[in-house]
Amino acid sequence: MCGIVGYVGPRQAVGLLIEGLRRLEYRGYDSSGIAVLNGSGLAVVKQSGKLSALEQRLTEYTPKGTVGIGHTRWATHGPPTTGNAHPHVDQSGKIALIHNGIIENAGAIKKVLEQRGHTFKSDTDTEVLAHLVGVCYRGSLEEAVAEALREVDGAYGIAVICSDEPDVLVAARKGSPLLVGVGDGEWFVASDASAILSHTRSVVYLDDGEMVVLTRKGYHVRDLAATRIEKPVNQIEWDLATIERGGYAHFMLKEIFEQPDTVRNTMRGHLLEEEGTARVSGLNLTDDDIKRINRIVITACGTSWHSALIGEYMLEELARIPVEVEYASEFRYRNPVVDDRTLVIGISQSGETADTLAAIREAKRRGARTIGLVNVVGSTIAREVDGGIYLHAGPEVGVASTKAFTSQVIALALITLRFGRLRNLSILQGRQIIQGLRALPEQVQEILDRAPEVEALAERFWRSNNALYLGRGVNFPVALEGALKLKEISYIHAEGYPAAEMKHGPIALIDENMPVVFIAPKDAVHGKIVSNVEEVRARGGQVIAIKNDGDDQIKRLASATFTIPETLDLLTPILAIIPLQLFSYYVAVRRGCNVDQPRNLAKSVTVE
Ligand code: F6R
What we know:
36% helix; alpha/beta; 19 helices; 8-stranded antiparallel beta sheet
């Protein structure tokens, strides 16, 4: 969602804010703005469009000041115009506020304020909050923010400054991530650490309901009722190079190519080959706890939901536990049947997705054990679950999720090993899976080394307006994920289906203009998928097949093929998705799309 950065210290704020926003731009990029306290009042500059448009404005006029806030927006209330861009100011023009999230009772508050003579310049809920802080202001910004927040419903990460208090920045969170960067005589707030990493690695993660007050002398954390809270200072381990493009044309491409390492990192330290199992102590589940679990619900959104589906196949097949996969947005509102013998697994790259977080909270409220498969260390989901596995895939900046997906599948395989070995999975089967897992990084590399073959495929098909992705069994979710990747970055309409389901409707779409991507490795359902390929061919569809070496049957039928190395059936998704990620990437580049910042999307969806 939106990106937030704030600064209090001895240096000029504007450059620091823009640098922070540049790193946060992947969270939202339809407009941006900054506000600084320049000694005589507030200076606010904002602009619709990409951050570069704001930078252009700032070349004409760069406000001076050493306390400031900056924001990059992903519109929720009102279109992405300059007027709707943050910061928003209150009625007096003294208070400026930036906000990530949604204020649900903004309409009602606005009505009351309008009756009191307030006029609003934007369509945003954020401006209403700025006005409310202004109404509550009686000489202390800290108290005004606390009082205003007690009146609002909804989710927020906010940062606020006031020209009457030129040394103060107040920030608060409920449902949207926020952290404090502790520098040497300077302090930052940010919605994620990448914004401030070039200045400090020491951060304090705020929890829901907490506020921080930054001054030139330091900071303190409190709740809305003024109780001071002692918070630990954490050290960020990853460095700036990991979040920079490192010579690649796009973050997405870099992240696709990182997968030999990220896949290795996710399993590092977890595999116990001798015992044919995985050590996953972070789950905080004893053997007895695991044996008591009689049902698993996996909940997630988007790409993470697709990895969850793969987990369902793995866990049911090898651990013989009933598994249900549910969109987090549905789970939270449908009165789910969950008890203390249910394990609820939340999967989230960002660890901040609002629906997944709400689903986890709902599951906890109903007495379930919760675990999280999360990439971002210190994120809200990671901190709220009873246990979990960090993916260790490193920061994922490209909006389209790639390396997080393969790492999520690895993490699910680790859980499958651990649960399976306490149930039906033999030590030999366990060892076989571990060997399969260990071979994956090199196999992924082998595929990446042949990226030009995928680029050539993209060259043949980039003009298509539609595409169908078909797979069976554990590769059905791969079909869904391949289609999602294509549609989100190239804007080609693409659908994923279980291959046999095609006959029940989608087959009507097939003609000579319809590329149909089959995920067709030599697995237990290979014979069935060959028949499905025949059905498409018979109707003139152009088949692109992901196949294994030596599969002449598929080769004869397909218009184009890409060969992936062989692995265990249940691990094929990790190899099959790589050429599909590359295919989407090259098609999108060929169509001139902005791969890292596709339209209407944001990296982490912290609103419902
Ligand atoms: C797709 C994509 C989204 C996310 C979804 C969940 O490429 O990035 O579909 O997978 O928004 O996000 P996380 O995993 O952060 O909860």
